Amino acid sequence: MAKKKKLTRSEEFDIMKLVLDKFLWLGFGIMAYGLYRLFQMDWTGGLLLIVVGAIVLILFLILIIKEYEFIR
Question: With contact defined as beta carbons under 8 Å apart, do 28 and 1 qualify?
Fold first, then answer.
């Protein structure tokens, strides 16, 4: 069996940025579509989509805080 390569801290961070960037785009896209639906006078559907987009962005925030310790 081949040995698994260990990633450095910076390589691990770069991979995490690539993955979490997709969460950021997804949350923004959902919220933008919700705003579009609000302008189309679909109040409940638009607000629901904005809330779902906010939840995706909050999950994004939790993943970042859980994964990395911030130095003060």
Answer: no
